[in-house]
From TrEMBL:
Residues 24-278 form the EAL domain. Transmembrane segments: none annotated. It comes from the Bacteria. The chain holds residues 537 to 818 of 818 of the full protein. This is PAS domain S-box-containing protein/diguanylate cyclase (GGDEF) domain-containing protein. It comes from Marinobacter zhanjiangensis.
Amino acid sequence: RSQHNPAVTWTQYTKALEQQTRETVDLTTKLRHALEAGQLELYYQPQVDLASGRIISAEALLRWNHPQAGFIPPGRFIPLAEQSQLIGPIGDWVLHQACRDLRAWRDAGLPVTPVSINVSLIQFELGSVPDKVRQALTDYNIAPEELTLEITESIFEQPGQALKQDLEALSAMGVRLSLDDFGTGYSSLGHLNDYSFDEIKIDKSFVCQLNKGRYPQAIVKSVIVIAAAIDADVVAEGLELESQITAVQALGCTKGQGYHYSRPVPEAVWRQLLADQKSWTA
Ligand code: C2E
Ligand code: MG
Ligand code: MG
Ligand code: MG
């Protein structure tokens, strides 16, 4: 926007751009070391059955704690990881760590739930996602239906034939597929018919607008109708308020996730949540 501000000269603009590029390069260099330096960690956030308040699954969310730079949010470093293809090794680590954690919870006798991980389009482009998933399931002795892969809608912007084959292979394997951030990207409803999704996650931007009009309500209602037609579960994201929970339930949604129940928590805290099988409704 700055180039439209007459007070900002071209030189200043160029400098700002250079500064931005330097920061990006610098952060990418740091990210390259993050894995081996053990700076990456998986947090878990519960997915909840809205009627009973019980935990039904866990979404693994990546955290990066840099000793000097501090906490860097995924919204900042995931795009860098994608641009630099570091998402390849990082994604492999996420897959293995989530399976390793799930195995550890089971071995500890905890009431275990399935786990969801987020997977980028770039990971599919780098190749072998189904093989890697099959290997991880074998290595940690996990049933395929205990793992869900969350894929954002943006994959539909350039859905190559290879991606389609990979998603079909994963489905055939019994791994669950979830369509994340539904409603935010290039949504062609036709694609829902081409791929076999087991779950649709309604983006939090709709949930937080539910009290602001009929359009967001209509979107949520349509998603629920479509999901029923393709035999998929619906999960409402970003539930922060009691009123939002009541609203999505009134529209027919039975599952949700959000700060009202719990923020994403470190693995040790997650174990405690599982052990307590915490129920958020009376
Ligand atoms: P996402 O997969 O849609 O994850 C949900 C995001 O919403 C998370 O942000 C979560 O902390 C946040 N959230 C959950 N409940 C609430 C709520 O009630 N209110 C609000 N305002 N936010 C809520 P987070 O952890 O910052 O992650 C952002 C995105 O980064 C994720 O969005 C996902 O697209 C990406 N990401 C995170 N971990 C990974 C990963 O391991 N691999 C890949 N490829 N992407 C990841
Ligand atoms: Mg997700
Ligand atoms: Mg999401
Ligand atoms: Mg998101």
